[in-house]
Amino acid sequence: MTERSLESSIARLLTAGTYVSVTLIAIGVVSLAIAGTSPLDSAPPFDPARLGADLAALKPAGFLWLGILGVIVTPAARVAAALVGYARSGERPMLVVSALILIVIALGVLSGTSAS
Amino acid sequence: MLGGGVVAGVFGSLLGLGGGILIVPLLSLGFGLPVREAVGVSLVCVIVTSGASAAVYLERKVANLRLGMVLELFTAAGAVVGGLVAFLLDDRLLAALFTGMLLYVAFSMLRRARAPEGAAAPESPAPSAPASEGRRFIDSLSGPGYQVHHLRFGAVGAVFAGVLSAILGIGGGIVKVPLMHLAMGVPLRVATATSNLMVGITASTSAIVYLLRAGIDPYVAGPTALGVFVGAAIGSRAAHRVDLRVLRFLFVAVLLYTAFEMGRRAAGSG
Questions:
Q1: How far apart are CA B244 and CA A50, in angstroms?
Q2: Domain coverage including residue A73
Q3: Residue B143, SS3?
Q4: Is the ipTM of this complex over 0.95?
């Protein structure tokens, strides 16, 4: 995989991830308005186990959480795509850099979960 | 909230800033949210704005992906630390730190507005060190017409940018752009685009910490992020029709007023 095609793939991934996430957020905002809920009302906390049920019930919080999750995960998916690209082209230093970024992100997840 | 997000997105896009610098004061001063909660929402917004524009910068070959990835390893590390530190800081201290940042950006913009357009960028000296393994790696991070140098200094600065981003809910461009441009010899246009690309990882790493520690309110984040996204799209289309010099002075006035109000909040009277 050439640097140019890797950059194009990453650009497409970023665009798709951003637009899908923003669409989900937009659906959540519209449902929030239809339900007459104020943004300053108390919101349900993030609970991955409840996400599926909230989406199935078409609850605004389900769409909003999934959209926000999409926003947060898209950059990490970009790094994962770069890791695959650099692995294919045999670029060891950049492969290591990509892997280390993903490890740091995992540390963020660990520190967030252990502190909560 | 949606309208405020649109305004933040338009300003941010026109002036090359993430919306974070306006979102935190908007939510904390305008809607009474605690500063830390506003920071969590702001992080989501800056990732949204960076996502779409970073893709364009990559397609146009303006952003330096390799350099961005090397530096974002350090901004991400800083963001994890900053995300944890932010939950230890008092709301008034966060407001005081934000006030300092607003004043810094206001005076930087004022200086830039007075400077002649197209001021010369620093020269990027040609490589002089022997072609060691490290030198070859640094060379692989350089782009057409410029040579990256002072990578170690850049890494330290990137950690600081990550900490700042996580604590204040900004993209960190106020540190990364001067760092790459002035210290590492990267042309301003490339530094701005690369910084934009890096915002995604920097902000999402700390946003994970905020998300898992109940620091993001989806009801507030939804309309604000949507507004910023729409505003950034409007801003990028209107950029060529706006007198940026006038806009900069207007923005400086907004920043100074916001700094005054945030300062009052930090002092406990806002």
A1: 47
A2: 3-115
A3: strand
A4: no
A57 touches chain B (CB under 8 A): no
Please give the Cα distance from B62 to A87 (Å, whole number).
Answer: 24
Longest dimension (CA), chain B: 59
Mutation target for B interface from A32, A100, A104: give the one with most B CBs within 10 A: A104
- Cα–Cα nearest to B57, from B190, B175, B148: B190
- C-alpha distance from residue B114 to each of B110, B117, B251, B253 (Å): 6, 9, 14, 15
CB contact under 8 A, B218 and A75: no
* pLDDT digits (tens), chain B, 270 positions: 788 888 887 777 676 666 778 898 889 888 989 999 999 999 999 999 888 788 888 888 888 999 999 999 999 999 999 999 988 989 899 899 989 988 988 888 777 766 654 444 554 555 555 567 777 788 888 888 889 989 999 999 999 999 999 998 888 888 888 899 888 999 988 898 899 899 999 999 999 999 999 999 999 999 999 999 998 888 777 766 777 677 778 788 888 888 888 898 888 766
Contact B20, B42 (CB under 8 A): yes
Q: Secondary structure of B120-142 in the HEC alphabet?
A: CCCCCCCCCCCCCHHHHHHHHHC
Torsion of CA B22, B26, B27, B28, to 10 degrees: 100
**Nearest-CB residue to B84 (from A8, A72, A111):** A111
- Which sign, positive or negative, has the C-alpha torsion B84, B86, B87, B93? positive
Backbone Cα Rg of chain B = 18
CB pairs A-B closer than 8 Å = 183
- Do residue A14 and residue B58 have CB atoms under 8 angstroms apart? yes
Number of domains present in the structure of chain A = 1
Give the integer Cα–Cα distance in Å for B209 and B47.
15
pTM of the model: 0.89
Q: Which helix (H) or strand (E) holds A37?
A: none
Tokens of B6: 């649109």
Amino acid identity at B66: R
- The type of residue at B81 is V
